[in-house]
Amino acid sequence: MVTRVPFTGAEKESLKAALERHRDAVLWKLEGLGDDDLRRQMTPSGTSLLGLVKHLAAVEYGWFCDTFGREAEPLPFDDDDPDADLRIGPEETTEEVLAFYGRARAAADRAIDELEVEDTGTAWFGEAVTLRWVLIHMVEETARHAGHADIVRELIDGMAGDHRPG
């Protein structure tokens, strides 16, 4: 079942539904592939499906937890390597990366549920941001990477589309 943004929903409910729709699309792009294909770098920059999931987990924790002073796991960011969170190391398993994303989503959902859209936190660059801004940003971020996942998946086996048929 495809998550739909309610036509007449409240602001936070609608933004959360839009985020959930794109989160689900990203995970759908992984279905049916083996570990080698999930790690397979399909672009000159090294983009892989599993790397996109790792990145999305890190930014969900960063934006929804770090920004609002909530607990987060250690994140795979590296000041000396701006793409570290997009790469999968040989020691990282698919199960670990998917579990990391699941925990990040759950932590983000708790923040969304407990905060009001006008509540403010401090972004990693030092500016105040509202939950509304973070939700909009994360819908954009996740949709962008869902599109990347769509292209990478199509290059791997031809599967295309932004959601499950039916």
Quick overview of this protein structure:
With 166 residues, this protein is mostly helical.
Model description:
This protein is mainly alpha-helical and 166 residues long. It has five helices and two strands, in the order ααααββα. It has helices spanning 11-28, 35-39, 49-66, 94-114, 131-157; strands at 120-122, 128-130. A two-stranded antiparallel sheet has the order 1-2. β1 and β2 form a beta hairpin. α1 (11-28) runs parallel beside α5. The chain starts with 10 loop residues before the first helix and ends in a 9-residue tail after the last helix.
Keywords, please?
single chain; 166 residues; two-stranded antiparallel sheet; globular
**Rg, Cα atoms, Å:** 16 Å
If strands are numbered along the chain, what order do they take across the biggest sheet?
1-2
* Unreliable parts: none
The largest pleated sheet is described as: 2 strands, antiparallel
The portion of residues assigned to helices is 40-55%
* SS content category: mainly alpha
Strand proportion, as a percent range, falls in under 5%
H-E order: HHHHEEH
Number of strands: 2
Gross morphology is globular
Mean pLDDT: 94
Number of contiguous helices: 5
The oligomeric state of the chains shown is: single chain
How far apart are the termini? 8 Å
